[in-house]
Design goal:
alpha/beta
Length: about 170
C-alpha cells in the first residue's frame, strides 16, 4: 500500500546489519506517499478500489527497470560501498519484485519475501524462473493461509532453489 512506516523500519533494520538500503514507494508513477491514510486497510473496499489501479500499472518489466534504477542510485551515493552486496525485502506484491530484483541484478546479496504472492506461477515470466540467475541468499516467508490456497508453491520454490544450489530458507508461518 505504498511507502509505509513499517517498511521504513524494516529498511533501518537492514541498514543496521550493514546493507545499503533504499525504501521506495512502488506506486510512485501514480501517487506520492503516503498513498493511503494511516490505519487504512486493504480489506476495505474503498482502499482496494483506490490502490488497485496503481498496482495494475506495475509489471514484471517495471519491477526490473525500477530495481536497476534504484541500485544505480544507491551506487552513486558516496556512502555506499559498491563492493558490498545489497539486500531487498518485499511484502505481498513485493515478493515477486524481490525475486525479479535478485534474479536480474548481480549487486544483490540477500532477498526476503514476506506473504509474497505469485512467486511461482505457470506464466512464462514467473519470478521463480529467475532462480538460476540468482547469486544471493533468500528468505521466503509463506503465510499459512497462502500455503493452504497453494501448497505446491513452497515445494516448487524449494526444488528450484536446490537445483541451482541457491541458498534459500522457505518457511510457512501462522
Amino acid at each position: 500500500l505504498g511507502l509505509r512506516p513499517a517498511f521504513r523500519l524494516m529498511g533501518e533494520r537492514l541498514a543496521k546489519s550493514g546493507y545499503a538500503v533504499l525504501v521506495v514507494n512502488p506506486y510512485y508513477r501514480s501517487a506520492r506517499s503516503p498513498v493511503i491514510e494511516p490505519g487504512a486497510s486493504f480489506q476495505d473496499a474503498e482502499t482496494r478500489n483506490m490502490v488497485m489501479p496503481y498496482y495494475s500499472a506495475l509489471s514484471a518489466e517495471t519491477s526490473v527497470t525500477d530495481a536497476k534504477a534504484y541500485v544505480s542510485y544507491l551506487d552513486a551515493q558516496n556512502s555506499v560501498d559498491v563492493k558490498r552486496k545489497i539486500g531487498t525485502t518485499g511484502y505481498c506484491m513485493g515478493g515477486p519484485m524481490v525475486m525479479r530484483t535478485v534474479g536480474t541484478n548481480s549487486r544483490m546479496g540477500a532477498g526476503g519475501t514476506f506473504h509474497g504472492g505469485g512467486l511461482a506461477t505457470d506464466a512464462p515470466n514467473s519470478p521463480h524462473l529467475l532462480i538460476p540467475q540468482m547469486d544471493a541468499s533468500m528468505l521466503i516467508c509463506v503465510a499459512a493461509n497462502d500455503d493452504e490456497d497453494a501448497p505446491e508453491v513452497k515445494n516448487i520454490l524449494r526444488e528450484a532453489f536446490a537445483a541451482e544450489n541457491v541458498s534459500a530458507e522457505i518457511e510457512v508461518y501462522e
